Amino acid sequence: MHPLVNKFKRNVALYKSLGVNPTALATGCSVKVDLVSVLYPAISSLRGKLEKMKISPRRDAYVFPTAEQQEIERRIYGLDLTEADVEDLKRLRPSRAVVLSQVGQELASSAEKFGQVVGGVYSKVAEGSPGIEIGKGHSIVTTEQRAQFFLFDYVKQEGQSTPELTVANNDTIQVIDPTEEPGDFRQSAVALANSLNDLYTLGAWRELEIYPVVDAPTDELRKKILDNYNSFSGEVGGKVLQVPQPSTGTLLMGATVLVRSRRRPPFFFDEVSEGMEVLLTRPMGDLAPINVYMVSMMDPDLITELNGIGFTIDQVAQVKEEVLSTISKPNLPSAKAIEQFLPSLEEDFDPERHIAVTTDVSGPGIYVIRELAELSNARISLWDVPLTSPELSEFATRNFIIPNGTSGTNGSLVIIASPKVLDQLEGKLSDQYSPRRIGKVIGKGEPKVEAPSKLARYVMAESYLKGFDLR
Q1: Which structural domain range is residue 425 located in?
Q2: Of 214, 236, 261, which closes a domain?
Q3: 246-to-135, 179, 209, 212, 397 alpha-carbon distances in Å
Q4: Has this prediction a pTM greater than 0.90?
Q5: CA dist 16 to 215, 332, 394, Å?
Q6: Nearest-5° angle of CA 225, CA 202, CA 70?
Q7: Which CATH number fits the domain that encloses residue 401?
Q8: How far is CA 190 from CA 29, 252, 307, 431, 441, in A?
């Protein structure tokens, strides 16, 4: 038996000794509730129905004015709030919230059912704190009914606004690589770096506060993950704060993260114009090699099929290791570079000096460019789809291992700006990344994204693929 298979079996035994089935865990951002077919329709159905609550526009992170006094209060609920929960909110009276929900597969597969549960929870939150604004919401799927919950990180604000913005986000996953030990430092590093990525995408990184979201089958494993967080926080200049944690006994790692910024975020969708170009900081498709490796460990026939496309299992393992090394590093250098090309809070946008819009390539993969086209009402033409391993992304899609071979976790960043701005930005990124131009804006009007026909080899999910005109 191959040594890698022996190692995999040992780790499977370790997970199972903790009461966790590693083959049932979703890797990285593939744990998200499907955005296109479930989450977006569900949230859209709620807008306007909740009279006492505001739901902020869909953005990578939640941006709001900083107050003189500002603190986070965490509350964790089931799939409903009790009368005591509502009374607690009446005393707390928060003005804002960042939300994490973890729901079972039945709810996560239906926009109607998911919307009903979210609507019920949100309506009671609005009853307890009328006028509250829901900022970033993150929703993930669990196979364990007992592990369903809603986590609210409420923001209490008092005093006047200060001359800066707060940028907040929550991203939470179950695990990044089930073939490695759950307490491995890289598992925690990827989870925390992924939480930070949506902030870094906006060029926001200063005065970092980390509010962990960690669950585990044992107290020992939970402590190990939190110790990893404390070690990692030193790399990004942040502080880890103590807050209540979920206690379902399942595996979960992520965080709500807050930073401060004195720059306007790159939400200049109306300023996107013909001739601007699309830059990708590094190739996409981080999750394909991880998932191909994991599934091949369970199915020897796949190893034979991999040999047929020129890959040994050792080579797949090497690509997986390279991916893990990349995604366990925070994209802080990107954040610092992007910040230099954003207007101050007092400035107007200047296309000759500023980045127009950004996003990160996470669970939806290349579909995030379609989302930018919709938000910008722009027509975009892509001439390239750079992938970490095109062969493994195609293999993962063809064998129904993952529905989207372009998806990632703590992924590359997409940046749209004028060629002049991108020329300067590339110079600042090229030392640590492999930036490349992959397309351009060809007009305004009806949102449209043209892409090379080969994209169909890497994306199986029809809900995503139909967002592109393939040529």
Answers
A1: 269-470
A2: 261
A3: 21, 24, 19, 10, 34
A4: yes
A5: 16, 36, 31
A6: 65
A7: 3.90.650.10
A8: 11, 12, 29, 22, 32
Pick left, alpha or beta for residue 118 (phi over 0 → left; psi -120 to 50 → alpha; otherwise beta).
alpha
Contact 279, 427 (CB under 8 A): no
Q: Which of 224, 243, 261 delimits the end of a domain?
A: 261
Backbone angles phi, psi at 37, to 5 degrees: -90, -20
**Residue % of the chain over a pLDDT of 70:** 94
Find all residues with CB under 8 Å of 57, minimum gap 6, and list them: none
Give yes or no for residue 281 having a pLDDT over 70: yes
Residues 143 and 227 reside in one and the same domain: yes
CA distance 189 to 425: 26
* Overall number of domains in the chain: 2
Same domain membership, residue 179 and residue 71: yes
Give the integer Cα–Cα distance in Å for 88 and 75. 10
Let me know whether 87 and 235 are in one domain: yes
For the domain that residue 195 is a member of, what is the CATH number? 3.30.1330.10
Are the beta carbons of 98 and 170 closer than 8 angstroms? yes
| Strand, coil or helix: 264 | coil
pLDDT band at residue 28 using 50, 70 and 90 as cut-offs = very low
Contact 148, 290 (CB under 8 A): no
Amino acid identity, residue 20? V
